[in-house]
Amino acid sequence: MELPIAPVGRIIKNAGATRVSSDAEKALEKALDEKGTEIILNAIRHAKDSGRKDVNANDMTHAIHYNNCNITNVNGQK
Amino acid sequence: MELPIAPVGRIIKNAGATRVSSDAEKALEKALDEKGTEIILNAIRHAKDSGRKDVNANDMTHAIHYNNCNITNVNGQK
Asked: Which residues of A touch B53 (CB under 8 A)?
């Protein structure tokens, strides 16, 4: 796993949770790590489909939406 | 945003991507940050529904699956 536990703990605190078990924190860390891998693999595929080796923000935004992450894009739009 | 960029960059490298723009990295960081918030909010709700204030690994695993993260749970099972 690549993500450090401290910032994951901050995400948890920011969301208003005060009492979260260590196992629960680790589960979230693992989920985000795996979700990140899933997204980048889709972004790489999207770049390849466009005939590029470079992964740009557009590939990543596409992959994020493809992976059901309902987030704002790099321009701040949903 | 809470997640530092370096470990997000390592997730990207581990997935085999070599050339990824800085904007694309930031977009992934943002997506994981927001996905993490979404998951913990669901985990908190799950704990409350069970009459608890403490968020445990079970709440988190439930929330992860609810949020379409197809990951292994804390016991290593899909």
From this structure: 18-19
